[in-house]
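Review session, final week

We close the course with one last complete record, chosen because it touches almost every idea we covered. It is RNA 3'-terminal phosphate cyclase-like protein, a protein from Bos mutus grunniens with 347 residues. Go through it on your own first, then we will talk.
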Amino acid sequence: MASQAHSLSYSGCNFLRQRLVLSTLSGRPVKIRKIRARDDNPGLRDFEASFIRLLDKVTNGSRIEINQTGTTLYYQPGLLYGGSMEHDCSVLRGIGYYLESLLCLAPFMKHPLRIVLRGVTNDQVDPSVDVLKATALPLLKQFGIDSESFELKVVRRGMPPGGGGEVFFSCPVRKVLKPIQLIDPGKIKRIRGMAYSVRVSPQMANRIVDSARSILNKFIPDIYIYTDHMKGINSGKSPGFGLSLVAETTNGTFLSAELASNPQGQGAAMLPEDLGRNCARLLLEEIYRGGCVDSTNQSLALLLMTLGQQDVSKVLLGPLSPYTDVPLPHYDQLGQLKVVGEVPRSY
């Protein structure tokens, strides 16, 4: 392998995305060893290899070396270049898995990013495109990332295991981020949602809406849940249905919850009534947790605060999600972004 004297060294497959994203933002190469070394199927998974290929596309001059077994990865980041491109995501994970990282990288590219992502738009593991559109985009606008070209659109919906979805994402370039002061979440003023169904009866979405409203109507009258039933080529390759809900507060905070049906051929069949009620309860739990940023976007908010100007940013968070509660990047006394180290729990 090439000279790796100044690279940061890690072990294991945990936090692979965070490590590669922070490496790209800081310009520090990383070497990750023992990736599932003791597993029956050792090395990188297909969705992780697809993520590395995506990083290679959005950068210029990156150097990536992987050993034969896939258990050791060396990544030397190049320049964040951007531009127009397409990428086929692995159907083992949702498009949200890739989109979360692009939201961190896109504002700092040389050219505005315009990308088409294909794969699974809604699943039970990663944030759906609907939730990221309703919560992450308003959060980025708080940091001053906004223009007419700032867009996230679902062109086709795709459910696991077949996928077949398509998403268009475009983001402007911002050299400097605004500091934020998000310390008062406000009161819930309305709830919006999207009940979707593909390759099943359109009535499924209506049944989801009725069951979700049966719980939410007890708390607030301003509720509107849209139904989205895509047909033909726009409906992907697998049947499924689901619901995403977003509660908006008087101060512009967005809190979200979502549920999707079990993939075709996996697990027990799920009734749309049960899914709607469970999703409504998840939203109520998210509201109870509080904070000015929901659980899905906590790590995004903290990262953008770190990358902002040398000014005070404040954000009020509810209980930290497991994804957020890991060592975070911070600046040293010389103002250099450090990828390792503990950060105090008071943000």
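Two points worth writing down before the exam:
The helical segments are 16-26, 46-58, 95-105, 129-142, 203-216, 272-289, 298-307.
Residues 272-289 form the longest helix (18 residues).
Good luck, everyone.
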